Amino acid sequence: MTDLKYIRGFESNDNKVIADFYNMAKPSFVSYFQKNFSVYGSDSDELFQDSYIKMWENIRDGRYKVMSCSLETYLYAIGKYTMLAKGRKYKEIASDSIFTDYDIADGSPDEIEEKEMLAKKADEVVANIGEPCSTILRMHYWDNLSGEQIAEKMDYGSTDSVKTQKYKCMQKVKKMMEKEVTF
Question: Does residue 27 have a cis peptide bond before it, meaning omega lies within 30 degrees of 0?
């Protein structure tokens, strides 16, 4: 079934279509969040359920606009922002996605608000992490500078030194996110 047919089914509350998409999407969704964010058991089921309902409501209420990504990708994006908004302490909560994935556009007012919260939290974490992490993370994520450019500007001996320092900084970010959990 195509995404358009699923969307039409959600809009008309077609129980068969809704159940078909649910059964098709749940295994891969749960697997993705287990693998990438260490979300297991009832937590992964709850995350799927919350995300699925949010997607369904967005479609039903006309807040969903057909996007360039698939409906399943849209569901994953909702899942990621739902997880972060609830402040769950999953293993990879502060992976690179905190700095890069909040620009997924969907047009939903709730999703825009969640993305703005995530962007604000990323700014706060980087502002409070201290040097040299603050500078390295800003140069890498905000200014899109390469490891070579950062090494040159900060007088590091090599790009490997920058990679190592960035890794250490991301570990600090993860710890800060786990302590604050205020999404």
Answer: no
Contact indicator for 154, 132 with CB cutoff of 8 Å: yes
- The domain locations on the chain are 1-93, 104-183
- The CATH class given to the 104-183 domain equals mainly alpha
Question: Could you list the pLDDT tens digit for every one of the 183 residues in the chain?
Answer: 888 899 999 999 899 999 999 999 999 999 988 887 778 888 888 899 999 999 998 888 887 776 667 889 889 988 888 887 766 444 344 445 555 554 445 445 555 555 566 666 777 778 888 999 999 988 888 888 888 999 999 998 888 888 888 888 888 887 776 655 433
Amino acid sitting at position 166:
K
Give the predicted TM-score (pTM) of the model.
Answer: 0.51
Is domain 1-93 classified as CATH 2.30.30.240?
no
